[in-house]
Specification:
Blueprint: H1 2-13, H2 18-28, E1 35-36, E2 43-44, E3 52-55, H3 57-61, H4 69-73, E4 78-84, E5 87-92, E6 106-110, E7 113-114, E8 134-139, H5 143-146, E9 152-157, E10 166-174, E11 178-188, E12 192-203, E13 212-224, E14 229-243, H6 250-255, E15 276-293, E16 296-312, E17 317-336, E18 341-363, E19 366-391, E20 395-412, E21 419-440, E22 443-454, H7 458-461, E23 475-488, E24 493-505, E25 508-512, E26 518-522, E27 525-538, E28 547-565, E29 567-568, E30 571-572, E31 584-594, E32 598-607, E33 610-611, E34 619-620, E35 623-636, E36 640-649, E37 677-687
Parallel strand pairs: 6-9
Antiparallel strand pairs: 1-2, 3-8, 4-5, 6-7, 8-9, 10-11, 10-37, 11-12, 12-13, 13-14, 14-15, 15-16, 16-17, 17-18, 18-19, 19-20, 20-21, 21-22, 22-23, 23-24, 24-27, 25-26, 27-28, 28-31, 29-30, 31-32, 32-35, 33-34, 35-36, 36-37
């Protein structure tokens, strides 16, 4: 038997694998060498004086290729939740505190296009896994350059630079009748190319009332008109449907975590109500880059988008129509002296929406009598300027400032309280100052202070209770931060540690009533302290051995978030933990590739217990998750690369809730995550 194994391995090792070697080089590329776009600095990660994390294609590919959730959860300070298949929430440094669904308090861009609408919502679940090639996560207030948001910003890019012409085909199947297909065709060359894509994901879900389907079609084009001018366009249409099983009490969760919310009192169960989300989104954006001189250029984006949402829920049936448009322009001026340089960036961003929201009674998943009909006129704009100065002695100073304004006007057209209500948030200044010093080659230290500003969004002033709350105030805070970035052993070892202290005023928190509908209120002030760290070590970079690459990595998050001053009637929550935020989160993994093409990716996640309500009387338990993927990636001829893979998630079949409903009435906090589940698939890359 041993002889047969040796013969088999020798035969594999003798195969010429030029394409596989290319992939191995991409996988083992040291993270700190990646050039990031954050804060318009276009520097290597190890030189950016901010808490920025980069998730590249190799990090995305090491999981099941259905979602970018596990890759984000491997990032220190970041937590993405899935309440049911297709229902995502993104948490950067505790920002899920005000997110019943989707993404709040974080500004998201897709290919430079504002993906967060003027009402503050980000339908991140509308993007397929295949619409993402890399992600940059800016942690902490980024309002100095990216508008309103105290949680941070996320920059998503869908295409690699200078993508070669070819065809990509992908198919994955797995537990719960998972079916995931993708087809992409790229035509043209580096000066003019078009990419057409289609992705479809379906699943029966791991809970009752949790089936989902998502179809996404995209067209992306780039056209280089001259050495000075370049145009790009991104067009996306997404059609998403997913059922919402609802939160469970602890007793229901322990008895049967797969069950949907049952009927209670006057409210039907999730299945009887046909609880679900029907969501369609169309987005089109054009980017124009023009270089006036060698040292002065402009990048401008204009876009238009339309979302249509239907939401039969336990309380009511909601229909939302959300057309919006906007743009962003950035001018960049560079000056160079003998041993110093200055980059000045300035510009503005504006968005406007004309929304309409209708609520009906819910008759078994169908709209009944109209309850409310609201027209919503919202806008948000900002102007910003930033200077980046490099000085002798490896010093660097970055200073930015923005001014922001937003407004929401709601006109109620039906019901006893018809009329117009407005809420405006004026002239909020958001400065940022960062200083860094390269102590020795491979060691950068930085410190920063920044102010964030985030007004309440449309869905917070007009939540699913349909009760208008124009009394909500904008939250704002001051963040102090210091960090170290270091690369050693010929850049094979990268270590990054940052510590922050954040004081947030008028924090907006989510609550849920007995029907499961969300509403919001200001929660006084909070104090948020944290240390976030990560390390990555390349054991065998580009080796000619059988194992030609081995990478170990780990990340750790420690957060101590507390209410500083928060009282509700007779209840004083001051000093309590902020719900939804664990003290410790750890992610670690190992990635191995071999010269014959076999590879393996192993991952472990740990999360501390979390408080589920402001009173801290209910807690979700800690959990450990383990999973892995293995496969064989090799060329078939000179133009085709095949990847045959299989994997498993939650190996030890842990019962846990990945997306908790914070402050839910009746203790309906829990949304069970899948137990042990399997996946497998195949992909082909064909170079034209």
């Amino acid at each position: 038997m041993k002889n047969w194994v040796l013969i088999f391995l020798t035969a594999l090792a003798s195969v010429s694998l030029q394409a596989q070697q290319h992939h191995s080089q991409d996988t083992t590329r040291t993270l700190q060498e990646v050039v990031v776009k954050a804060y318009e600095q276009h520097r290597q990660l190890k030189e950016v004086s901010a808490a920025v994390n980069v998730i590249n294609a190799a990090q995305l590919e090491r999981y099941n290729n259905t979602s970018f959730l596990p890759a984000l959860n491997a990032t220190p300070g970041v937590h993405m939740e899935e309440r049911s298949p297709g229902s995502y929430r993104l948490n950067i440094r505790g920002s899920t505190l005000r997110s019943p669904f989707g993404v709040r308090n974080v500004k998201v861009y897709w290919n430079g296009i504002p993906f967060t609408d003027p009402g503050g919502n980000t339908y991140l679940n509308q993007l397929s896994y295949f619409n993402v090639n890399s992600i940059e996560v800016l942690k902490g207030p980024a309002s100095s350059l990216y508008g309103a948001g105290t949680g941070g910003a996320v920059l998503i890019n869908s295409q690699a630079d200078n993508k070669a012409a070819g065809i990509n085909l992908h198919y994955t199947t797995g537990s719960y009748n998972l079916q995931n297909i993708n087809a992409q065709v790229t035509l043209g060359d580096g000066d003019h190319n078009n990419t057409f894509g289609y992705a479809r994901l379906t699943s029966d879900g791991y809970r009752d009332q949790s089936r989902m389907r998502r179809d996404v079609a995209t067209w992306e084009t780039r056209y280089k008109a001259s050495d000075k001018q370049q145009l790009a366009a991104s067009v996306m249409y997404g059609d998403l449907y997913y059922q919402t099983p609802g939160g469970l009490t602890a007793a229901q969760f322990n008895a049967n975590p797969k069950s949907a919310r049952p009927a209670a009192g006057a409210f039907p169960g999730a299945q009887d109500a046909g609880a679900a989300i029907y969501q369609k989104t169309f987005l089109a954006g054009i980017t124009h880059q023009y270089r006036f001189t060698e040292n002065f250029q402009n990048t401008s984006v204009v876009y238009g988008a339309f979302s249509n949402i239907k939401n039969p829920a336990i309380r009511n049936y909601e229909r939302r129509s959300e057309p919006h448009f906007g743009g962003r322009t950035v001018f960049t001026l560079n000056r160079q002296w003998q041993s110093s340089s200055l980059q000045l960036s300035f510009g503005g961003e504006g968005q406007r929406g004309f929304f309409n929201t209708k609520t009906f009674g819910n008759a078994g998943g169908q709209p009944d009598t109209v309850q409310t009909d609201d027209d919503i006129d919202n806008y948000i704009y900002s102007g910003f300027v930033q200077g980046d100065l490099r000085l002798p002695g490896d010093w660097s100073v970055s200073a930015g400032l923005s001014i922001n304004k937003s407004s929401i006007t709601i006109t109620r057209l039906t019901g006893p309280e018809t009329g117009k209500l407005s809420a405006s948030f004026n002239s909020e200044w958001a400065p940022r100052l960062a200083i860094s010093k390269k102590i020795i080659p491979g060691l950068l230290m930085y410190a920063s202070i920044s102010r964030g500003f985030s007004p309440p969004g449309t869905a917070e002033i007009l939540p699913s209770t349909s009760i208008i709350n124009t009394g909500l105030q904008a939250e704002h805070g001051l963040n102090y931060e210091a960090g170290v970035k270091s690369s050693w052993l010929q850049q094979r070892l990268y270590v990054e540690v940052n510590a922050f202290y954040y004081q947030l005023q008028n924090a907006i928190v989510q609550r849920r009533d007995a029907s499961g509908a969300d509403y919001f209120e200001n929660a006084g002030s909070t104090r948020q302290r944290g240390i976030e760290s990560q390390a990555s070590y390349q054991l065998l970079p580009n080796s000619n051995r059988f194992v030609n690459s081995a990478r170990l990595w780990a990340s750790h998050t420690w957060h101590r978030f507390r209410y500083q001053d928060y009282k509700v009637v007779a209840n004083d929550f001051s000093g309590n933990k902020l719900p939804g935020v664990p003290a410790h989160s750890i992610a670690a993994g190992i990635d191995l590739t071999t010269s014959p093409g076999w590879y393996i990716n192993l991952t472990w996640f740990y999360r501390d217990p979390i408080a589920l309500n402001d009173a801290n009387t209910d807690m979700a338990t800690s959990y450990n998750l383990a999973g892995g993927r293995t496969g064989w990636r090799r060329p078939l001829g000179k133009t085709i690369i095949m990847d045959l893979f299989a994997g498993v998630d939650n190996v030890f079949d842990v019962t846990y809730s990945l997306g908790n409903d914070i402050n839910a009435a009746g203790g309906r906090y829990y949304n069970a995550a899948p137990g042990i589940n399997y996946f497998g698939g195949i992909s082909f890359q064909y170079k034209l």
